[in-house]
C-alpha cells in the first residue's frame, strides 16, 4: 500500500476538523474524497502534506512513517499537493513557478523534466518568461499541476482542481488526471464535481463533519441513494 492513514485527527483549537480518519491508497490508484463544504477535506490533505499537524493518528507513505515529517521532507518522499486555489505566485514567471516544484530535488534531471512539462503544455511553453498573472484560470491550474509533477511524486493530492473552470476546461483537466493515472501516478482527488470524480476514480470516500460516512468502489457510490440525495439533488437511478 502506498499511503496508509490510521486514526488521523486534525484539530484547530476547539474545532475537530478530521476525526479518526483511516484511508488507504494503492500504487496506481485514483481515490476521490467527496463531501460538502466544511467536511474536512482540505484539512485532511493539509495534514497529509504536513501543513497542519496531526493531533492523533499515523501516516505511512511508501512504507515510511511520515507523521512527524515537515512538508519539504514529505515532498522529498515524493508526496505532492496541488493546493486549494492553486497558489501560483503571480509575480514570478511561469518558468520560475515551475522550478519551485523541483526545489527539493538534487538530481540532474530537472531541466529535462521541465522541458517535458513544456512539451505536454504548449500554452505554458509559449508563456514561460511571462509573469504567471497572464495565464487564464485553466492555464494556472495546469501550472499548479505541473509544478507538483516536478517533485516527481509517487502520489499527487489535488484539492478541488476543477473549481472555477469552464466545462470544457474541466473535461481537459479530468482527461489529464486520467492520463497521469494511466502513466502510473497514484492520485488522491478532493472534488465537488462528484459525478466526474467518480467516473475516473476506482474508489471514493465521502466525508461529513470530519468523518468518513460512506466509502466504496466508484460504481457503488455513483448509484448510492444517500450520496445522490446529498449531491445530485435526486435519487440514484438504481436502488442503493
Ligand atoms: N485554519 C483554520 N482554523 C480554524 N478552523 C478551521 C481552519 N481551517 C478549517 N477550519 C474548520 O475546519 C472544518 C473543516 O474545514 P475544511 O476546510 O477542511 O473543509 P473542506 O471540506 O475542505 O471544505 P470546502 O469544501 O469548503 O473546501 C470547518 O469547520 C472549518 O471551518
Ligand atoms: Mg476545502
Can you characterise this structure?
With 240 residues, this protein is of the alpha/beta class. It has a domain at 3-87 and 154-232: P-loop containing nucleotide triphosphate hydrolases (Rossmann fold), CATH 3.40.50. The protein is 36% helix and 26% strand. It has 10 helices and 10 strands. The longest helix is centred in the last third of the chain and has 16 residues, at 167-182. The two termini are 29 Å apart. The protein binds adenosine-5'-triphosphate and magnesium ion. Residues 41-42, 84, 159 line the site of magnesium ion. Adenosine-5'-triphosphate (ATP) is lined by residues 12, 15, 17, 35, 37-43.
